[in-house]
Structure formats: structure tokens, C-alpha cells
Amino acid sequence: MEGFELSFKNKAVRVWFCTMLPAIILTIVLTIVLPNEQSRYVSLGLSLVTILYFVWFVIYSKKKRK
Fold first, then answer.
1. What is the spatial distance between Cα 61 and Cα 54, in angstroms, rounded to a whole number?
2. Do 49 and 23 form a contact (C-beta atoms < 8 A)?
3. Which residue windows are transmembrane per the record (predicted)?
4. pTM as predicted
5. Can you list the alpha helix ranges (DSSP code H) found in 1-66?
């Protein structure tokens, strides 16, 4: 198995910081601001962003190996 480089030279790390970090910050802010009844929608949104990132990562990894 190939090692994982944790630097901004790695495209997967850059995409994670550009997608996941703002989503996490937005989730924290919306959880504080919105009433408790709507917190499930906020966590659902973060879950969708996480799933989309990992789908992209799997496709990117397969394409990179070819």
C-alpha cells in the first residue's frame, strides 16, 4: 500500500480542507444559531458533504492508479 502524504501538495488534502473544513464550521455555527428542532437537518447536511467527499476520493484514487 502506498503511503499518504499529508501536505497541500496532495490534491485529496486540499479538497478536504476546501470542502470539509467550511462545512464543519458552518455546522457548528448553524447548530448554535438554529433551534434544536432543525439541528437534524444541519447534521444531515454535514453527513451528505462527508459522503460526497469520500465518493470523490474513491473515484479520484481509482483514476490515479490507472
1. 10
2. yes
3. 12-35, 41-60
4. 0.80
5. 11-33, 39-65
Looking at residue 66, its amino acid is: K
In tens, the pLDDT along 9-59 reads: 889 899 999 999 999 999 999 999 998 888 889 999 999 999 999 999 999
- CB-based contact 31:42 (threshold 8 Å): yes
Q: Which three three-digit cell numbers place residue 51?
A: 459522503
A 10 A CB-CB count for 21 gives 10
Residue owning grid cell 453527513: 47
pLDDT per position as a tens digit, 3-23: 667 788 889 899 999 999 999
Residue 48, C-alpha cell as written in the block: 451528505
- How many of the other CB atoms lie within 10 Å of CB of 1? 3
- How far apart CA 31 and CA 24 sit, in angstroms, is 10
